[in-house]
Specification:
By secondary structure, the protein is mainly β. The protein is 5% helix and 43% strand. It has 4 domains: 98 residues, Immunoglobulins (Immunoglobulin-like, Sandwich); 113 residues, Sandwich (Jelly Rolls), CATH 2.60.120.380; 114 residues, Sandwich (Immunoglobulin-like); 74 residues, no CATH class.
């Protein structure tokens, strides 16, 4: 009996040591697993830009349970992390700021941690390249529409200003015209053969005489190679839409809407019409594909029957592109018909072709100068009886109470028609310059007649 009791006492401690209730009913807590996507942040920005680059990094739990995380950067001033803590699933925003950075490649690490989780801490590499300004290749005779943005690079020749850059190739002796306009900012255009800011540019402008915007007209390019255009602003930090034209010199357009006017520059002379004054005014609307050009009108005026020589006889003052110009023509010959042609000339001496006025044949008159002049004194005067045939000699006598007078009538104006006025007074009575008889009109150079009736018998007349 004692042996049995001893065996029982010996077995109870063994059962007690291998059968703990707590070990069976409370399993270990689940293990979280930190997952980050993407695994790295790689980005770039233009030097001088200030637009911040933003990345969203997803944080998740690839394991079990609740995963609380924290995030922090190494403290550099160009990386910002927000928020710095949270619970998965969630995200963190990484902001990269290029404003204070020069050109180069910058690296940092954002550390993400979760207590008790696998993959904790996780290092998120950051690589940020600040690159040189990019230039877009263009071929002259192009119009560009774009915008300045805070993500654009800093203007090489204007610190603190944003710029878009364009490049073109040129040969020695070429010239170029640039025109920059914007409704949003004061434009400033720069031309140089390099983007280096260590030397003054070849040319720059913040205005355009006679027009809005900024322009450089007919800049002579000193050497062969690539040239760079900076489209930028007058005031630092300005942004907005703009248009830029890059053009080579071109000849102006033919004059349009040609007109011929009297000397008042208002009253039109119709095609083939006559003008009774010496000076005339010739005009036309002038235009050029280079908007900032100033232009003048050149005209060649020749008598009908004389061929054009291509040599101008008069020119206008210079006017803005798209305006009308007028040239006064003096020294024209009276009683002469003329034809004329016109062309446009820009400030560089480039010329359009000649354009003839009127649309009529060049053998026809565009206008005729016909200045009124007094007719010449009658010539070859004669006095006749009423039949107009029987001549009366000087101091002669007629038995009729009417007399016919004849004379050759001429006028400096070839187209004029003429009539003969005759004043007859009794001898001893002075002339009053009041006609006693008037004939019918005849052509210039013809013989005109005038009849005086109602004469008094037995009276002598002069």
């Amino acid at each position: 009996m004692q042996w049995a009791t001893g065996a029982l006492v010996c077995a109870l401690p063994l059962l007690t040591g291998t059968c703990k209730i707590g070990d069976i009913t409370n399993p270990p807590p689940p293990l979280g697993k930190l997952a980050v996507s993407p695994a790295a942040v790689v980005d770039s920005a233009a030097v001088g830009s200030v637009a911040r680059r933003s990345w969203t990094v997803a944080i998740s739990n690839a394991g079990q349970g609740v995963l609380s995380w924290t995030a922090h950067a190494d403290g550099v001033n160009w990386v910002a992390v927000s928020p710095t803590s949270g619970t998965a699933p969630g995200s963190v925003t990484i902001v990269l700021d290029p404003a204070a950075l020069g050109m180069g490649v910058y690296r940092d690490t954002v550390m993400l941690s979760a207590d008790g989780a696998a993959n904790s801490p996780t290092a998120l590499p950051i690589e940020f390249a600040v690159r040189p300004c990019a230039t877009a290749a263009v071929v002259p005779d192009i119009e560009i529409s774009d915008s300045l943005r805070t993500s654009d690079c800093g203007a090489p020749h204007r610190a603190g200003h944003f710029a878009q850059l364009y490049r073109f190739d040129a040969a020695p002796g070429d010239s170029i015209t640039l025109a920059l306009a914007s409704p949003s900012f004061g434009p400033h255009v720069v031309l140089d053969s390099s983007m280096a800011a260590t030397a003054p540019p070849l040319a720059e402008a913040a205005s355009c005489p006679g027009q809005g915007g900024a322009c450089l007209s007919y800049v002579l390019l000193p050497r062969a190679g690539t040239y760079v255009v900076e489209a930028t602003s007058v005031t630092a930090g300005q942004i907005g839409a703009y248009s830029l034209s890059v053009t080579r010199p071109r000849a102006p357009n033919l004059p349009d809407s040609l007109r011929q006017l009297r000397s008042d520059s208002i009253t039109a002379i119709p095609v083939g019409g006559a003008v009774d004054q010496g000076p005339v005014v010739l005009g036309g609307a002038l235009s050029d594909s280079n908007a900032q050009d100033t232009l003048r009108l050149e005209v060649e005026v020749r008598p009908v029957g004389t061929a054009f020589t291509g040599t101008p006889t008069a020119g206008s003052a210079r006017v803005a592109n798209g305006r009308r110009a007028f040239a006064a023509i003096a020294g024209l010959s009276n009683n002469t018909s003329y034809h004329w042609q016109a062309r446009t000339v820009d400030q560089t001496g480039r010329r359009s072709g000649w354009g003839a006025f009127g649309g009529n044949a060049e053998s026809g008159a565009d206008f005729t100068v016909a200045i009124p002049q007094p007719p010449n004194s009658p010539a070859d005067q004669g006095q006749f009886k009423a039949d107009g045939v029987t001549s009366l000699t000087l101091d002669g006598t007629t038995d009729q109470l009417s007399v016919v007078f004849k004379a050759l009538v001429t006028d400096p104006n070839p187209a004029d028609q003429l009539h003969l006025d005759v004043e007859v007074e009794a001898v001893g009575t002075a002339f009053t310059n009041t006609p006693s008889g008037t004939g019918v009109p005849v052509a210039n150079g013809g013989t005109a007649t005038a009849t005086v009736a109602g004469l008094v018998d037995n009276t002598a007349y002069h």
